[in-house]
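>> received
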Amino acid sequence: MPTFLKPLLPRPWLSLILLSLWLLLNNSVATGQILLGILLAIGITHLVPQSQNTPITVKHPWRLLAYLGLVLVDIIRANFTVARQVLGRNSALKSHFLEVPIDLTHPVAISLFAGTITLTPGTVACTLSQDKKNLLVHALHTDNPTDEINALKQRYEARLNLIFNNKTHSKHDLPRDSA
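>> returned
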């Protein structure tokens, strides 16, 4: 990239991604949308501080793809489960707030964990503790909160630990079953 453009485009790939997302969300490539998208893309990249860029080192990209596939399947399954629960008797629902201890240390891994929980129907990641060691999660229905916490840790957190090459605790190792 030419040096005179560096102050204008400190992160060109991020700017390009933001512009592309803007045009996709607006479903238009009109001149006004392109200009507004360029303005937003450049402005946003200047507003996000450089110090917040934590290097992302995915040690096992094939595991990340498998994880994304798993999450997609879980989202589809959970949609049917939640539909049955919501269309059934509301008195049968047993919602709980779960305090999920987090072993992840990488900020992107923690974000992916919280995002996965929120994207999966029936659960919402509400807040991350100040020390980034606990995640408060609301579950629409769970019979046993402890089992739900262990399932989240085994199904998602253990896989993210492997993807980002963190050490997992033996209690929450990756499950051997494919479900």
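>> Residues 61-172 form one domain.
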